[in-house]
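Holo model, zinc ion. Inputs:
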Amino acid sequence: MAKAEEKRKNCLACNKSLKRIKWYYRNNGHFCNKNCFKEFLKKQAAKT
Ligand SMILES: [Zn+2]
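Output:
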């Protein structure tokens, strides 16, 4: 049932579309790499 969802992923930090193999999966989110993941955490931390 999640087929459509898996078709395209965007980095939650920089919002680029990601290619399957390259993404970095953490905390139910997809990122370009560790850096973007960190950026995302920063943003989240700033929000709360
Ligand atoms: Zn990114």
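Strands lie at 9-10, 17-18, 24-26, 29-31. Residues 11, 13-14, 16, 31-32, 36 surround zinc ion (CB under 6 Å).
Archived with the compound record.
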